[in-house]
Amino acid sequence: MTAELVRGQNHPLSQARLEIRISAGTPIVAVAALGDENGRIHGVEWVAHPGAPTQPGLEVSRQAAADHRLAVDLDAVPEAVHRVSVLLALPVGGTGPARFGAVAAPFVAVTGLDGGEVASYTITGLEAESAVVALELYRRQGAWKVRAVGQGYAGGLAELLTDQGLAQAHQLAGSINEAVAQGLARSVQAPPPRTADGDRSRQAAAPALGPDQGGTAPQPGPVPPVSPYSGQTPGGPGQPAPQQPSYQGAAPDPNAVTQPTAGGPIDYSHPRRQNAAPPPPPPATPPAAPGQPAQPVAGDATGWSMEERLYNQVWGMFEDLARTTAAYRSAVDFAESRMDKELEQVLSDPRSRIGGQGDAAREAARARHAQLVAQAQEALDRDLTQLAAEADVVEPALPPAYARWDSPVWHAYRVPMEIPMALRLGDLHLREADRIRIPMLVRLPLERGLWIDSGSTGSSDGSFTDSHAMSRLAMETAVAHAARLLAVYPAGEFTVHVIDPAGSGAQPLAPLVQTGVLAAPPALGAAGVADVLGRLTQRVDLVQMAVRGGAADSLPPGFDTSQQLLIVNDFPHGFDDRAVNQLRYLADEGPAFGVHLMMVADREESSGYGPLLDPLWRSLLRLTPVADDHLADPWVGHAWTYEPPLVPPGSQVLQQVLAQVATARTKFM
């Protein structure tokens, strides 16, 4: 299965002989550079480029083109080489595009010799850059991996090669540009694609391969060099295009020799062969019809990677929904206050209290109110339609860390190699836009603990759940959150502990226990509570002293540096005063030093402690196991309805994901 990489992500390589296929909407230059363990290029002989297309283990194209195939043999590169970088640049000196922001995003794929894709990367987010490090193959502990880089340079190849540590960067960049220019001058024009009506007349020319690329050099008659970016015809500036042979009607004899017309260039292409370049890829955002809004596109936001762009797009949708709803509510409030004022003026005049004049004034006030509300509703419906269309496009494109449990992306889940920037904790919506769900994303690592409120809370639909069922739902919600955290962290970088003093959460905890992803079985009784809290408190103390003392490397050998999550069920059962103080300490100091708290508790049950625990509840992010409108944003003051990310009934996706996490952890250890 092909790994679709985002910026900074890597993927292992199981083959030494590879092809790197590059596709762009415009001719670009492809270069491959060898680097040492620090990524430095030692000399010009470590760079394969159009002027010197072969180096040990490398072969690149000799010309600028919209599509390239680079050959790589990792077993043939020198021992001192630890990195192979693929560099792309726009040709200089022509009238073509001068920055990648003006062209379609280049696509790079690493394939085997059989053509099967190993990894691919679409280089997005480029603007003023004219050269870019697309990806790199690097050696790590005897094995090779590929990493998506996407680092652009506005100064072109010279700036890029300088950053790679090459002393002769400017001279080599000039040599590459000269070789590309000479190749363009030697190129022979190819025929355009066949038109819709079947006319094969050669009216415009596209660049073809030169003799050094396997093309056919012109034999009789000189053909003036033509730049494919100049837009000039072979006749020269200001001259009419020469008449070219036209094949219409019956198919020509393939053995016949076509005679050129007087004064025109000779057509060397076979009349039945289509040599036209493939059409460029479609633009990122499909054009909208006149008067219609633009079609939404997933990842249509700023960011260095697709993950960051989707994150920014989701929160942009949140802000748009908050803003348009606030505008609607403000307009309705204004309409009501205006109607009340007009009715008050009517009633304040004794002459208008009776008779037709008063009735007409009241009807006019109500009509203006209805008109204002209708206008506000129309604007709201228009914005919600656009947001709903965007949500329909964005939701299927979300990675596992952002996706719902019912998303198909979980069926192709693999334990990640990198920590994502955020995590989905549920969905948010407003009553005016009930059909639109905005993912609730929080940054990782968590900056504050979570509190799954198991108290008797009325849901947003007016239904109530008894205390026993609520406790079970709360624990199932906590397990779903913990499973998602385990799934989005690399193997061995996230550890989960559970305190369940009375054993009441045994059934909801079964997926975590049976798959073996817990650090230890759930702690039972007061002794188990004291043991787990003591170990985690000691861990926070050690890391805190090491960090504040500037001696982070002096931690004990074998110290577990992974992020720790403590799930506490049925609080305050089994907790004495010492345990309560330790819990407060972990809630306050733990997140900064890698220990996070997830409480599953009913606040009313701990009311016996009085105000002692008030700081604890305030330090935690309160979530509910049922839909509830308890989340308020300070921006516009909306009360957002929160929906927890529960696993669909009957689905085995959570068990399957946890099984892969457990297998990866076993291999890691």
Descriptive report:
The protein is 30% helix and 20% strand. Residues 186-285 have low confidence and may be disordered. Strand 5 (54-55) and strand 6 (58-59) form a beta hairpin. It has 669 residues and is an alpha+beta fold.
User: How much is the radius of gyration in Å?
Assistant: 33 Å
Number of helices: 10
* SS elements, strand count: 23
Taken from the alpha-carbon principal axes, the silhouette is flat
CA-CA gap between termini: 25 Å
- The class by helix and strand makeup works out as alpha+beta
Query: Beta-sheet strand percentage?
Result: 15-25%
Largest sheet: 12 strands, mixed
Overall pLDDT score: 80
Low-pLDDT residue spans: 186-285
Proportion in helices: 25-40%
